[in-house]
Amino acid sequence: MNLTSQKERALMPNLKVSLTARGNRAIQAIPPSLIRTVDNRISQIPDIIKLTLGEPDFEVPQHIKNAAKLAIDQNFSHYAPSAGFLELRQEISNYLLKATNTYYQPEGEITVTVGATEGIYTAVQGIFNPGDTIIIPTPSFPLYHAVAELMGLNIVTVNTAPEYLLTANKLAELLIKYPQAKGIILNYPNNPTGATYSPEQARAVADILRQTDLVVLSDEIYAELTYEQHHLSMATLLPEQTILISGCSKSHAMTGYRIGYLAGPAELMTSIDKIHQFVVTTAASPMMKAAEESLRHGQNDIIQMRTIYQQRRDLLLNALNLAGFTTTTPAGAFYIFARIPTNMIQDDVKFVYDLAEKAQVGVIPGSIFGPGGEHHIRLSYAASTESLIEAGRRIQNYARQYQHSAVI
Amino acid sequence: MNLTSQKERALMPNLKVSLTARGNRAIQAIPPSLIRTVDNRISQIPDIIKLTLGEPDFEVPQHIKNAAKLAIDQNFSHYAPSAGFLELRQEISNYLLKATNTYYQPEGEITVTVGATEGIYTAVQGIFNPGDTIIIPTPSFPLYHAVAELMGLNIVTVNTAPEYLLTANKLAELLIKYPQAKGIILNYPNNPTGATYSPEQARAVADILRQTDLVVLSDEIYAELTYEQHHLSMATLLPEQTILISGCSKSHAMTGYRIGYLAGPAELMTSIDKIHQFVVTTAASPMMKAAEESLRHGQNDIIQMRTIYQQRRDLLLNALNLAGFTTTTPAGAFYIFARIPTNMIQDDVKFVYDLAEKAQVGVIPGSIFGPGGEHHIRLSYAASTESLIEAGRRIQNYARQYQHSAVI
């Protein structure tokens, strides 16, 4: 019997009617990812150039691919220790020592995760109890909010516009208002804005946090993509109360390999590592060997990619400015967060669909990232230089229609 | 500056004293995995043969390795859809159609997970609310209990000894006592006992469950390792209220590739897929391409491995019986659950350490798997034939000391 005829006669997993709407309420309350909704809708437009996803267009460097393939040949197909292969944790430790001047012990202070996503999830699960208060500066990566909500946390969002950084002053004010806060999520360089702390700003923020008992979840996955300035990590400034979230996905174009890591004080990491075991057991073995290689011999890859990203950023910034968008030069990550010109559609979701339909350029509405994001769009410049040139041209053409028409 | 001297001068992530013992209470309440504790301790004994872990000693079949390496070469290094590559979900759908006669739609009814572990975790998180009652037959894989406890579920365990199967009669009694139960975890072939439902037994259990609104989480990861009888899936018997948990880890010796999957009615899968996104985003792309190949062209691998497992099972059973252990022939998985002879140490944890020290054979104490496991040991025969022969010889030698000594 062939598959088609077998399908026709097969049973169907239609949910028993009495089981309708009985699943987890916290999950049902969280709306589906709007980034995906927008991305799916505009993906159907022919010839669209998508600057939507935070994903490098680069290929994984050849020496890292080779390491992954060698690991497959060498039968790294068995369970790794739950915290990840010790050799990888040693490389992470060495890397962090050089990058942050803090020495995290491979045994007990570092856990390898399934991308930074699992890092964020397990860190929040490991540190907080339902009802705890967490501070999330916005605009921010929507995952933070979803994970905190899933856990039943009390979420305090703080709008960081127009700097797009939670400055020391704003933080101080906030802590007077929410003295019960147990933790805070920092993300710099920031997704979606590309803003990042200068060393002075980072120090000022750390000085305030040091006077508190807040646990700092510092998502620094874009640390290696910092332009024209030095990235000063919370791991350097506040190692005694920080869980550092990072990984190789963005620095080495390895998003699909799903390797991230967490580093922090042993007691916090013990809880986190325990839940990590229950959630995934461990990351994929050959992918960990690839990550090991990226940390051991991948410093040049980063430098090369960073140079190209910076060129792409400037190219896209220039096109946006010519089209009338207000931007600040993002100092990190690979996003531009641009203010929609006041003579164009001001509802950012409607604007995005209009731009996609009329100009065949796909971007993400800023309001998806929370308070401070309205009237903005996020453009990822982790796309090829050719696509960015063409997208810039299309956006400028799109802007021309407004030179002869009234404000909508 | 070299790493050693840099280490000496580096900062240390010593937890701020005021942050001590402030982490997640539910996680802290769960004891660390006793399997790992036992395994770590006995791993330090020189020349030990470990029959402790549920991990095939086989290598990944060459055609599957090739598929993984090709995927790396072909730049499958970008994010896959959160539910997994569509091609993989199509292969899973085809496989399940043939194996269970139920047609799960690749879009909406199947989610690829980071091993069956993440499948179990996200299924429990997606289906239950804190305070819900879940039935877990024991002895069982300790992860079920931990995941349910983490979520604050009300756990009803039911001792399945001596059959090591939750029979229809026992289930019926249980449901009278716990009419509020919202779900049940089934696992057959079973870890740790190797017991599995005959088709008649599975039908009888399904007939009772069909009269209830219980959601059935059916962990059938060992389905392909069923000996001398047919595996009848809950996906066939109860598709309208079952979430099927499975994967390629055990059938194709791919534990370290971390690919599992869930299949079930669309409404339940929607919640589960949403939390899956928040937990891991998606599984590793090259590993998914390997899993696709294992489902498409890997049927012969299974048959070959199964034949060898069965020989190993019989070999180890024979040695255990000669040494005085009471066993039933396990019909599935790759575990033997053996009753410690009454003239030996009856505390199974103490017995395991004694066996490890005196006979250099590592096994897992049965009580770790919950009520019904006491006085038993679990031996994994997913080890090489040579190790199993030698382990059998050592166990028989160990038993000889008791022929001339009193009961301890």
UniProtKB/TrEMBL annotation, chains A, B:
<dbReference type="Pfam" id="PF00155">
    <property type="entry name" value="Aminotran_1_2"/>
</dbReference>
<dbReference type="InterPro" id="IPR015422">
    <property type="entry name" value="PyrdxlP-dep_Trfase_small"/>
</dbReference>
<keyword id="KW-0808">Transferase</keyword>
<feature type="transmembrane region" description="Helical">
    <location>
        <begin position="315"/>
        <end position="338"/>
    </location>
</feature>
<dbReference type="GO" id="GO:0030170">
    <property type="term" value="F:pyridoxal phosphate binding"/>
</dbReference>
<dbReference type="InterPro" id="IPR015424">
    <property type="entry name" value="PyrdxlP-dep_Trfase"/>
</dbReference>
<keyword id="KW-0472">Membrane</keyword>
<keyword id="KW-0812">Transmembrane</keyword>
<dbReference type="InterPro" id="IPR004839">
    <property type="entry name" value="Aminotransferase_I/II_large"/>
</dbReference>
<dbReference type="InterPro" id="IPR050596">
    <property type="entry name" value="AspAT/PAT-like"/>
</dbReference>
<keyword id="KW-0032">Aminotransferase</keyword>
<protein>
    <recommendedName>
        <fullName>Aminotransferase</fullName>
        <ecNumber>2.6.1.-</ecNumber>
    </recommendedName>
</protein>
<feature type="domain" description="Aminotransferase class I/classII large">
    <location>
        <begin position="47"/>
        <end position="390"/>
    </location>
</feature>
<keyword id="KW-1133">Transmembrane helix</keyword>
<dbReference type="InterPro" id="IPR015421">
    <property type="entry name" value="PyrdxlP-dep_Trfase_major"/>
</dbReference>
<keyword id="KW-0663">Pyridoxal phosphate</keyword>
<dbReference type="InterPro" id="IPR004838">
    <property type="entry name" value="NHTrfase_class1_PyrdxlP-BS"/>
</dbReference>
<comment type="similarity">
    <text>Belongs to the class-I pyridoxal-phosphate-dependent aminotransferase family.</text>
</comment>
<dbReference type="GO" id="GO:0008483">
    <property type="term" value="F:transaminase activity"/>
</dbReference>
<dbReference type="GO" id="GO:0006520">
    <property type="term" value="P:amino acid metabolic process"/>
</dbReference>
